[in-house]
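[Q] Does anyone have a clean structure-token version of this?
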Amino acid sequence: MKHSAKYLPLLAALSASAVMAQDNTYKIAYIDPLSGPFANVGQLMLSHLQYAVQDMNAKGTGPKGMKLELLQFDSKLSAQESQSALMSAIDQGAKAIVTGGSGSTVVAALIASAARHNERNPDRAVLVLNHSSIDPDLTGKACSFWHFQFEANTAMKMKALANFVKRQPSVKNVYLFNQDYAHGKQWARYGQELVGLARPDVKFVGSDLHPIGRVKDFAPYVAKMKASGADTVITGNWGQDMTLLLKAAGDAAYDVRYLNHSAGSFPGTVLAVSQSKIGQLTWVAEWHPGQADVPKVDALSKAYKAKTGAEFLAPRIEFTPRMLVAAIQKAGSTDSVKVARAMEDLVFDSVVGSVRMRAEDHQLLLPQVVNTIAPVDGKAVKVGWEGTNYGFRTEAAYSGNELAQGTECKMQRP
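[A] Here you go.
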């Protein structure tokens, strides 16, 4: 079709405007489970990201009017599916991938794929922002310049729990029960190592691994634990695998303490504890609902619930894209190499306090609070959760610097 000369300036202006609008949009791709046994976990995490992106866009937080666009992909808990999603995201113009709820095996595959792509296509390089997969190898011997860890890793979390166990004489016989994948094995290993160091008198009376997301009845496993005489179970289970374990233990009248990294932040866990009525689930996170002296999170959680109708559970996921924007502003560019360098040693005033992205391994140093799901008593536990009379009792709190570990990372920078 031919256009008359009088329309050519208008068409040129419209084309230039379209290019400018496209250039001023920064695309983030979310790749996590949106179907299958952990779909509720993936949806919760997505909701936190959506809230932050919508809030920043509405307030014009991005530099020079930059808007964020959030793309969504279902990881299906599969490394292969996630890698295909990564390529689709890149084809659609994504410059950052947000992931972490699919397990460390999937996240490791995404990081490796992103690194290969970036080496071949430096003009379309992507960053991997990991909000929840906490295998220390991801910021250790398998560290990558393109990957940033926004959650305390396994060693940091277990150190916090081991410090707690020091003051718990009731912990005597410990069973290691974990999902059969890289991080499940890491949780068991660090549990035996760090709890053993903190309490040399503790006995480890058994160990089991089970398929992730596939066990429908944990009764046979619970029977083994109970027969071993274990009073404490170190388990990295999360999502459905944690709620079904709690149910089976409750049905067996097995009153045991669980030491876990993050299960309390997943939907259905508090309800499962309240229904079992016995057992104590102690876990660790940057914040827990009802925690005192964190007014910024209280305000955020109320605003989040008013907008989404859901409960707010994970500050780190909500502030992950905010830190990304802060790095873009610091870099003065959306170029991925420049943004990654700006993220290194970035200090960010988050809702849980000042946090720092450690440059040598890209591990965020953020506070961790050891807490136990317990009945509301009006003192230590003032607020019920998930429609129950159970909430969260603070046991101990540690700064990111207190829990920081050494690293095997030998960062290769472009």
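[Q] Thanks! Anything notable?
[A] The chain has a mean pLDDT of 93.
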